Amino acid sequence: MRIQTLFLVGCCAFAACEKDVTVDLPQGEAQMVIEGTIATGKYPEVILTRSLSYFSHITVDQLKAAFVHGAVITISDGANTMQLKEFSKDTTNKVKWYYYAADTTLAGAFKGINGSSYTLRVAVADTVYQAVTTIPATGMVIDSLWSTGTSQGDNLAKLMARIADPPQSGNYVRYKTAKNGGVFRPGINSTIDDQIVNGTHFNIMLEAGHDRTQEINYDTYGYFNKGDSVRIEFSNIDKATFDFWRSLDFAYASNGNVFASPIQVRGNIQGALGYWGGYETTYRSIRIRK
């Protein structure tokens, strides 16, 4: 009888403690986000936005308002400087996409060159952001590509690559894949470095690109289907660009893992989120064997 009494008292106590709790989550101050690239043989491109709250319900109007207009953006190679012009293009979700790129109608517009360094300067109102990136002169090269079967199903295949790394240490790569004429996408792990394999030829599995708006099926992740036509975008990058993408990959992979340590995405633009990166890019193609 005493046990029953204690049990009832305990239940009443817990019931009495129940109440609705409303947590006022902090919104945080919007920060400048800069995404800038310059690649071999291509004009630079920069996208400016303001960050959105992690906990906010993102609407079309918020996306439209996130773009930053009227910035003065210049790119310098040390000898020449050009100012970028703001452009826009329509997207399928009815949101105009704004970006800054070279005005090719003016003299002095230049493209990226291997081995050159480029300084980005972004002036928004009274604030200036700067960063420097280098397009590597040389780097890792894909020697050969082939496919192998997997234990996950008769129709699945791994894409393998043999990569040659030069004798000089400090080489970094980011790669994406596209299949059957689709868009290029990175995998969960999209970077390679030569910390362990410097100056060697080594074999590595190239993961199939993943749409990061979709959940990951770990039973089939990273594999291609037999018969797929695959394109590889293979870019040598500098250390700062590598650190940005590697930390972003880690942050994505650990998202939702309550046991993971907090990860800070490492950009190279002081005072802003994002990065300014140079790319020495080559492309390779293969059809996965049936």
SSE order and pairing:
Layout (H helix, E strand, L loop, with lengths): L1 H16 L14 E8 L5 E6 L9 H7 L5 E5 L4 E9 L7 E6 L14 E8 L2 E8 L6 E9 L6 E9 L7 E8 L11 E3 L7 E5 L18 E2 L3 E9 L1 H15 L19 E15 L3
Parallel strand pairs: 1-15
Antiparallel strand pairs: 1-2, 2-5, 3-4, 3-6, 4-5, 6-7, 8-9, 9-12, 9-13, 10-11, 10-14, 14-15
Structure characterization notes:
- The protein has 290 residues and is mainly beta.
- The chain folds into 2 domains: 103 residues, Immunoglobulin-like (Sandwich), CATH 2.60.40; 124 residues, Immunoglobulin-like (Sandwich).
- Helices cover 13% and strands 38% of the residues.
- The protein has 3 helices and 15 strands.
User: What are the low-pLDDT stretches, counting only 5+ consecutive residues below 50?
Assistant: 1-16
Helical content band: 10-25%
Strand content: 35-45%
The CATH topology label of the largest domain is: Immunoglobulin-like
List its traits.
Immunoglobulin-like; 3 helices; mainly beta; single chain; 38% strand; disordered N terminus; 290 residues; four-stranded antiparallel β-sheet; 15 strands; eleven-stranded mixed β-sheet
In short:
The chain has helices spanning 2-17, 60-66, 239-253; strands spanning 32-39, 45-50, 72-76, 81-89, 97-102, 117-124, 127-134, 141-149, 156-164, 172-179, 191-193, 201-205, 224-225, 229-237, 273-287.
